[in-house]
Amino acid sequence: MRRLALSTFVATLLGLALTGCDKEAVDSPAVQQPTTQASTARSAAGDAYPETEEGAKALLQALPKNPPLVLRLKPTTEDYRALFVGDAAAKAERFYAANLWNDAKLTADAGQTQLQVFKATSDEIRSWSPTAEANFPGGYQQAGPHLKPGFTWYRWRYAEPGKDSGMAYDGLVHVNGHWVWTPKPWRALEG
């Protein structure tokens, strides 16, 4: 009986020691597994499109040709918390869950092969700098105080070559090692 109790104790200690060796260990291994898998999938997507303007452009060129790719841009709770100040994070998450991610689409007409990209930092948006004012919809001025500093936000348009109008989108931002899409954030933060 003592051997059985001692064996159980040693096995438990060994299990705890092995769990403690994992840098990403959490209280429950059952909770850890899905988080790690989601993190790995996000990391792979992040590696394909790095946190640069060129990475953003490559992703934006790929989106109309690969519609399911837009679903990889769905922010996590941690992403919302990193991008938005205070309770604005939860408000944005609820809004996008109800109004975007059930039927998220991003399209361009066949002739709209020219990509036009505009960017501004969250600091430029918060202060409503000339760069932000010239390149972003006015609603961003309302959203600015709710954006955390340190991120670059992108707005883009798919247009026919030589034209300045087309399918316009906004709200692409790189956070936590991957790209996310939070379009028209002022709408998410209204009321």
Could you give the topology of this structure?
Blueprint (H helix, E strand, L loop, with lengths): L1 H20 L7 H20 L4 H10 L14 H7 L4 H12 L14 E8 H6 L2 H6 L3 H5 L8 E8 L6 E10 L2 E4 L3 H5 L2
Antiparallel strand pairs: 1-2, 2-3, 3-4
Could you describe the 3D structure shown?
The chain has 9 helices and 4 strands; from the N terminus they run H-H-H-H-H-E-H-H-H-E-E-E-H. It has 2 domains: 1-48, no CATH class; 50-189, no CATH class. Residues 1-46 have low confidence and may be disordered. The protein is α+β, with helices and mostly antiparallel strands.
What is the structure about, briefly put?
The protein has a four-stranded antiparallel β-sheet, with helices on both faces. It has helices at 2-21, 29-48, 53-62, 77-83, 88-99, 122-127, 130-135, 139-143, 185-189; strands spanning 114-121, 152-159, 166-175, 178-181. Helix content is 48%, strand content 16%.
